[in-house]
Amino acid sequence: MNNPEMSALFDVLFSNVTSNQAPGLNEGEKSVFLTKGQNMLIKEEFNPRTDGVGGGFDGSQQRQYDFSSLIVVENLMNISSNIDPSTKLDKRSLVFRFPLKFFLAVNEILFDSKRQYSVLPLSYDEYQRLMLKPYNFPVKRGAWRILTGVAEDSGHNVYPKAEIIGKFEGTPTYQLRYVKRPNPIILEDLTNYGDDFTIDGKWRETPCELPVEMHQEIVERAVTLAKIAWQGGTVTQAAQAAAQRDNQK
């Protein structure tokens, strides 16, 4: 489904669910809802708690195919030497820089000179609970990972950073297989909506990166979000202005 087709389907579905009572949305506004709907669907399909039994990335071969175009494998940069030890969550940890495009982790592995380690992501609550145990280290061949903030490189780019806790021989290599953040769905160049109007920092027309089999579902989710916004009185100023212009004609 190309951009004009997505836009036309959005219009039809939005008119139906609002009984033609809501003001029409312009291409920029539809792009915002389409991008948000796309990102929500990806998060849900990677979360077994949301997606039910057999959910998550490993839930089906179809799901793995759906997101194969977004999967990236990368060895992460160790930035421990650039980090003030007093700012670390755990003094024992190594600190790695996560990719700017990181969205969701699929698989994380560390290698040192002797063995391979599986990485277990932790929440802050889980970390605090584990620190209360007499032996507060990961199991053998295991490591803990906690996203602890951001780091800035020499070019002033801001990256997520993660602390890795484990017992390693020397300095390990951290390999991350992840789903990159998909490009926003932008139905037309956003230059007509003001210099400051971008979506995820982008303004050029961009089609959906996901397989065409998912496009209708993305549009349906975007329409649902647009309806919620309209019913909640959070229609954008641009939509209100468009409605006023239509009434003046």
Please sum up the structure shown:
The chain is α+β, with helices and mostly antiparallel strands.
Task: Outline the structure in words.
This protein has 249 residues and is an alpha+beta fold. The protein folds into two domains: 3-46 and 210-248, no CATH class; 69-180, no CATH class. The protein is 33% helix and 22% strand. The chain has an eight-stranded mixed β-sheet with strand order 1-8-4-5-6-7-3-2, with no helix packed on it. The longest helix has 19 residues, at 27-45. It is elongated, with a radius of gyration of 22 Å. It starts with a helix and ends with a helix. Residues 234-249 have low confidence and may be disordered.
If you average the pLDDT, what whole number results?
86
Global structural class: alpha+beta
Number of helices: 7
Strand fraction equals 15-25%
Topology:
Blueprint: H1 3-17, H2 27-45, H3 48-51, H4 61-66, E1 71-75, E2 77-78, E3 94-97, E4 102-111, E5 116-121, H5 124-131, E6 142-152, E7 158-165, E8 173-180, H6 215-231, H7 237-248
Parallel strand pairs: 5-6
Antiparallel strand pairs: 1-8, 2-3, 3-7, 4-5, 4-8, 6-7
Helix pairs in contact: 1-6, 2-6
List keywords for this structure.
elongated; 249 residues; 33% helix; alpha+beta; eight-stranded mixed sheet; disordered C terminus; 7 helices; single chain; 2 domains
